[in-house]
Design goal:
about 60 residues, alpha+beta, three-stranded antiparallel beta sheet, 2 helices, about 35% helix, globular
């Protein structure tokens, strides 16, 4: 999955950029935080795990 597609999915579900970490960008919804790698491509199993863990709707 493209990193930008995952970020758009987060933002569509009410998450926003909080800060930049070392190799990750940190997103929050005000209650939880999630780090997203800065690689252009995020492996499908990793992306699916993040989407399922945060219950993101497409």
């Amino acid at each position: 999955m493209k990193r930008w597609d995952l970020i758009k999915l987060f933002e569509k579900n009410g998450w926003w950029f909080l800060r930049a970490g070392g190799n990750h960008d940190i997103y929050t919804n005000g209650k939880d935080i999630e780090s997203i790698s800065r690689q252009k491509e995020i492996k499908e199993p990793v992306a699916k795990a993040i989407i399922n863990r945060r219950k993101l709707k497409k």
